[in-house]
Amino acid sequence: MLIVLPLAITSGLETLVWMDYRLAVLFTIVVPLFLLIWAFVKKSEPIQHLLIIYWRVASLFAITVYLMIAAVPIGFLTLLISGFLITVTLWFWVDLNEEIRELRNSPLKASFTSWRWAATIYNLIGIISQIPFIVCAFKSRNDLLNEPFCNVWLDPPWLFKQIIHPDWPQEFIGFLGFSGLVIYTIFLCYFVLVKLQRQGRSATGN
Predict the structure, then answer these.
(1) What residues contact 106, with CB distance under 8 A and at least 6 apart?
(2) How far apart are CA 114 and CA 107, in angstroms?
(3) pLDDT tens by residue, 4-45
(4) Are 203 and 50 in contact (CB under 8 A)?
(5) Under a CB-based contact definition with an 8 Å cutoff, are residues 136 and 150 in contact?
(6) Which of 2, 83, 141, 156 is 20 to 30 A from 103, comparing alpha carbons?
(7) What is the 8-class DSSP label of residue 152?
(8) Cβ distance 79 to 130 under 8 Å?
(9) Residues 203, 88: Cα–Cα separation, whole Å
């Protein structure tokens, strides 16, 4: 069953979606990349370590973008999960949290702490706001493309395709997204079933 939305609601939803993607680029890509480079320059190992783990986890967001480009419904589910996993990984590691707290005050530490809290709040709000759209993950691809309630989330990824992969067919991009999701799931299962049991909430295993 198709959901028909009034034009004003559709326009407002489109504005919110584009704002969300812009904030996602800022909080999940631009700022953490800058902080990682800064941490390497300052040789701040605890912040380096946490940000490297962050980037591994946050790769699910990139996978989601490729799934969205191909209009694969499961992309709505991975979008929700990526926000949850990013939030968890920012605070999960007991040893890194302690080492970061013990760092002397500096612009890097202050910037990293500010970003960590801002990213946490952004992701928590994002998780809550995306819950109504989880129904889109269980629709057929045709319904996904035909319902403004769902397909409004596809516009930013499609713009990304036009800029970065203008000549790549959607089927190939979808294949890359699925392949990335399979690899990500394998590593996540290994972490949960093996590494977490062995190391607990220690990132270094000590």
Answers:
(1) 42
(2) 10
(3) 444 445 667 888 899 999 999 999 999 999 999 999 999 999
(4) yes
(5) yes
(6) 83
(7) G
(8) yes
(9) 13
Tokens at 121, concatenated: 């709040």
C-alpha distances (whole Å) from 86 to each of 26, 47, 66, 141, 157 are 14, 15, 18, 27, 20
| Residues 174 and 67 sit within 8 Å (Cβ to Cβ) | yes
Using the structure block, give the residue that is written with the tokens 């680029």: 25
Q: Are 54 and 32 in contact (CB under 8 A)?
A: yes
Residue 78 in contact with residue 60, Cβ under 8 Å? yes
Amino acid identity, position 92: F
Global pTM value: 0.90
Contact by Cβ (8 Å): 170, 25: no
Burial class (CB in 10 A: 0-12, 13-18, 19+), 156: buried
Rounded Cα distance, 98 and 46, in Å: 9
CA 137 to chain centroid: 16
For 103, the 3-state DSSP assignment is coil
Angle at 181 between CA 95 and CA 62, to 5 degrees: 75
| Contact (CB, 8 A) for 145 and 151 | yes
CA proximity to 34, closest of 19, 51, 21, 17: 51
* pLDDT, tens only, 67-80: 999 999 999 999 99
